[in-house]
Amino acid sequence: LDYLGVKNILFKCDWVDDRGVNVDELGFTVVNLDRTGYKSDCFILASHAKQVFYVKDQLDNSKSVVCLVSSKCNYSNEALCDGIDEYAPLSNNFPE
Question: Which stretches make up the DUF4216 domain (predicted)?
């Protein structure tokens, strides 16, 4: 987007239907990636994006566990990275 010289970066994304999202007893967010939603609203501002990856649930192949990727670490200086959790479960706080 370009508004009078101010540029905003957008990402196209696939949303998971809210009815396919659960938090398990350990606090992990579990989603059903086959249940997509918000198909008419597929763009978000880059500033609102979080990088995640999905791990297949070993007990239920239709579900995946959401893991948040820490993107604030500079791997060229490993001393700065000590003590930083690289992956954490995504909380149940989804975009408003």
Answer: 2-62
pLDDT tens per residue across span 39-62: 788 888 888 888 888 999 888 889
Higher pLDDT, 96 or 7: 7
Question: At 53, which helix (H) or strand (E)?
Answer: strand 52-56
Burial of 54 (0-12, 13-18, 19+ CB in 10 A): middle
- pTM for the model stands at 0.60
Return the domain boundaries, the chain. Answer: 2-89
Nearest-angstrom CA–CA distance, 94 and 22: 12
| The three-state (H, E, C) secondary structure of 21-52, written as one string | EEECCCCCEEECCCCEECCCCCEEEHHHCCCE
**What is the C-alpha to C-alpha distance for residues 90 and 85, in angstroms, rounded to an integer?**
13
Quickly tell me which residue has 């396919």 as its tokens. 20
Q: Is the CB of residue 94 less than 8 Å from the CB of residue 37?
A: no
